[in-house]
Structure formats: C-alpha cells, structure tokens
C-alpha cells in the first residue's frame, strides 16, 4: 500500500473514532462512555497494524514526566510573563474544585483526545511517513493529516447521526463556535509540538503527556470559568490568547534542544529515514 494511504489511515481512524464518540454522546448522558468508546475504537483500528516499538510505546514513565514538565513549565513561563505584564488576571483558587476538575478532566481528555490522537497520528501516521521520508516532510505530512481529523469526525457524526435519527451538525473542520482559521492555526502549531515531543524523547508517551498537559492548562485557566474548574484567568483582550501558541512554540524549542543534546550529529529536518521492519 502506498505510504501516503497508510499514513492517511491514521487520520481516518481517529476521525472515525471521534465521530463514533460524538454519536454516542448524543445517546447517553454520561461524559465517560463516549471517551471510552473513542479510545477503544482507535486502539482497535491502529494497534493491529503497528508494533509497540513502531508506535513509540516505550519508556512510559520517563516520557510522561518529560512531556508534563516541558509543557507545563513552558505554560508557566509564558502565562507568568503575561501576568507580570498585566495582560492576565486570576480569579480565586478553590483547591477542592480544582482537584475534582483535574481528576475528571484527566480521565476524559486522556481517553477522548490525548491517547487516541497520539496513537493514530504521532504513532501510526508519523511512523508510516518516516519509513520513507526525512523528518521535516514527515512532520509536515503528519500535521496536515492531523488538520483533517475534525472534518472527518464531523462527516462520520453526520452520517451516523442521520442513520440513528439524531440531531446533526453541519460539516466543519472546526468545533462549533470556533473560528476555523484560528483553530487550524493553533492545531498546526500544536501538531508540530507533539511531533517534536516524540522525536526528542523517542517515546509516544511524551506526546501523550504534552497533549494532556496542553488541554489541562487551557481548560483549567483560560476556559476555567466556562468549565467551572475552580480557577480562571481573565484576559485584557482576545489578542492575549496568542500566549497559548507562544507557550507551545517554547515547548517545541525545548524539545528540539533535548534532541540536539541527545543526538548532536542530527537535526529534526535532516535525520535519515528509518524504514519499518
């Protein structure tokens, strides 16, 4: 099978899994069931075609810790700078509500987004493209396919929702209420950062932790009031939201430095392709 078709299968699998979970969420009044459905469908579609080593499923503890520290640290630096500049003010910190939010959000975000998306895209799709292409082209290709996932999931939900006579939404490449250009811009930077995490550490778990930390930081702070997280950030203007891609860029740079320290003879763009065995 052509390498691009194999790579595209990762995006299709994730889009299908997410579309199925959205359909289930319309039928059940429980946030956990759709998340479990998404994770199970993605694993069943991807895992039979890739060995653990090809997916980067190794060094779990070190990879998770690395992703948490790099992404969380980058967010703290950038959002902290924004606070010192007077661009962000913070609401009351309610510990018990924050802890409850962290518990529920971690379970749902891990199963619904972080684990299945990383397994499908930075796991399967990245490995397929790296079997033939150098790092830069594989990264661009993986990220381009990542941008198609919201549209694929929207199409799947539209089809399944029609079959099961549910309320359906119009076909879109961004979630309802999101500006599509801004959303795809952020998703592009996010995609490259997630690839940098995997390449720098050699572990998909670093990408999973980066993904989960990113979602948690944003939902706890910037979206805190909307999500009743027990803490919230108020921005002086919508332009301050650019601090979000800014801390992703910082995290990607940290991962790049890690990569150069571990393999100084290579770079992310010039490293030789490693063919699947």
TrEMBL record:
Designated name of the protein: CAAX prenyl protease 2/Lysostaphin resistance protein A-like domain-containing protein
Protein keywords: Membrane, Transmembrane, Transmembrane helix
Positions of the CAAX prenyl protease 2/Lysostaphin resistance protein A-like domain: 102-214
Pfam family, one: Rce1-like
TM region positions: 29-46, 67-89, 95-115, 136-160, 180-197, 242-261
Organism: Kribbella yunnanensis
Biological classification of the source: Bacteria, Bacillati, Actinomycetota, Actinomycetes, Propionibacteriales
UniProt cross-references to InterPro entries, sorted A to Z: Rce1/LyrA-like_dom
Superkingdom of origin organism: Bacteria
């Amino acid at each position: 099978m052509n390498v691009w078709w194999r790579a595209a299968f990762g995006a299709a699998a994730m889009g299908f899994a997410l579309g199925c979970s959205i359909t289930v969420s319309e039928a059940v009044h429980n946030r956990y069931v759709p998340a479990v459905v998404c994770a199970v469908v993605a694993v069943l579609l991807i895992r039979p075609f890739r060995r653990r080593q090809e997916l980067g499923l190794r060094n779990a503890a070190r990879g998770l810790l690395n992703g948490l520290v790099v992404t969380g640290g980058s967010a703290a630096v950038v959002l902290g700078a924004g606070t010192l500049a007077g661009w962000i003010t913070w609401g009351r910190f309610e510990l018990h509500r924050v802890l409850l939010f962290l518990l529920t959000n971690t379970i749902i975000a891990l199963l619904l987004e972080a684990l299945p998306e990383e397994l499908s895209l930075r796991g399967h799709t990245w490995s397929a493209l790296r079997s033939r292409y150098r790092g830069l082209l594989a990264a661009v290709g993986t990220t381009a396919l990542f941008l198609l996932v919201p549209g694929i999931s929207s199409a799947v939900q539209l089809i399944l929702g029609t079959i099961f006579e549910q309320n359906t939404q119009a076909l879109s490449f961004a979630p309802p209420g999101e500006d599509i250009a801004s959303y795809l811009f952020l998703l592009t930077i996010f995609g490259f950062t997630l690839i940098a995490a995997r390449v720098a550490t050699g572990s998909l778990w670093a990408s999973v932790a980066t993904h989960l930390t990113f979602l948690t930081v944003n939902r706890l702070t910037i979206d805190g009031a909307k999500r009743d997280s027990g803490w919230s950030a108020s921005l002086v203007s919508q332009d301050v939201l650019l601090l979000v891609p800014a801390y992703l860029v910082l995290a990607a740079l940290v991962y790049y430095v890690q990569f150069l320290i571990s393999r100084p003879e290579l770079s992310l763009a010039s490293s030789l392709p490693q063919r699947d065995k």
